[in-house]
Amino acid sequence: MRICFISAHNFSAPGGVRSHILSLSKELRKKGHEVTILAPSLNGKKTEFNSGIDNLVEIGKTLLLPGNGAQFDFTFANKGQLKEFFKENKFDIYHFQNLSPMLSFNAKSILKNEPTIVTIHTYQSGKISSKIVTSERIDRFTKGYNHRIFVSPSQKNFFEIMDKETYSVIPNGISLKHGMEFKSIKGKKEIRLLYLGRLEARKGVGYAIKTFIELRKDQKYSNLKLDVVGSGDQKFIDSIEIPEKLKKDIVFHGRLSDSDVEQVRKNSDIYLAPATGGESFGIVLLEAMQYGIPVVAFGNPGYKSVIEPNEILSWGLVENMNLDAMVEKVKELLSSPERYEKLSKEGLEYVKNYDWVRLADKIIDVYKNVLKQKN
């Protein structure tokens, strides 16, 4: 099959949708399919994240606007340019990844008679978002597509009003790394905590830093270090009062390349995931687990949808936005090397359920059914 992914998001920085598209694209190509990725450009900016992708075509431009405690793409796409691209490049399937004015809407108006699928990565969170991103609007804006895919059961408020035949729930996946071994903290002189994500309140970086500060108040945990990976709101970070004596033990790496992130994960012992909401899924949890890193996470709906089904791993979930609970959970984990190893081993096994090798076949089945219906 010839497949075109149409992304509502630019590729100039790391992000969940970008990771989803690239990983799925890679797996589909391994299975013999031809894949082209269409995405907006961020002012023509070239970075290590949108360079070297041989099947990426950038059309249109995007503005990054604040929303839902983060940023979202508002895209401008020349309809004539899109028409020319689709005229020169015929595909069997057009797979939209999230929707955004105007690239997605213009592309869909051109492709109204073609086989189209849309994956919704969005999650409803916050008072403003809940008023704008309603189930009725999701239903209305996606009704013209031949099939709709949701990435998590936590999005059920979006699809519970839809006919079951019109949508599927297929989780996000990871490109599984084989040969990873479980971790242990027995005899370790230094324990490294890890936060990885945008530096903004909703993602919980403040809770991660405060968890570390609380732990270090006890001399017993003087061997703890914290790695913070990501970029974002520096003013928010500066507003967090970090004791002078601890500043040398918190490493702010900024935005890292994929290979550098991999190295940080290999050196990490506990993953802190304190996002407070707005997460449709918990891909970051799976990415940590596949390195054998035990996870301590806030129980927001997206993270719960990933961890709760597993009795062993769900031990790491704590009440959302409860700093004391996160601190105590980390203490419990550090005090029990046996539990630590159990969580590490279970995580390595559990992530196999989310291997793109398996999930790509489910996506392909959707494609085949849509093509069958169109014919």
Topology of helices and strands:
Blueprint: E1 2-7, H1 16-30, E2 34-41, E3 56-67, E4 70-76, H2 79-88, E5 93-97, H3 103-110, E6 116-120, H4 127-132, H5 135-142, E7 147-150, H6 156-159, E8 167-169, E9 191-196, H7 205-215, E10 224-229, H8 234-238, E11 250-254, H9 258-267, E12 270-273, H10 283-289, E13 295-298, H11 301-307, E14 317-318, H12 323-334, H13 337-350, H14 356-374
Parallel strand pairs: 1-2, 1-5, 2-3, 5-6, 6-7, 7-8, 9-10, 9-12, 10-11, 12-13, 13-14
Antiparallel strand pairs: 3-4
Describe the protein's architecture and organization.
It is globular, with a radius of gyration of 21 Å. It starts with a strand and ends with a helix. The mean pLDDT is about 95. About 40% of the residues are buried. The protein folds into 2 domains: about 1-175 and about 355-375, Glycogen Phosphorylase B (Rossmann fold); about 190-355, Rossmann fold. The protein is about 35% helix and about 20% strand. It is of the alpha/beta class. The protein has helices spanning about 15-30, 80-90, 105-110, 125-130, 135-140, 155-160, 205-215, 235-240, 260-265, 285-290, 300-305, 325-335, 335-350, 355-375; strands spanning about 1-5, 35-40, 55-65, 70-75, 95, 115-120, 145-150, 165-170, 190-195, 225-230, 250-255, 270-275, 295-300, 315-320.
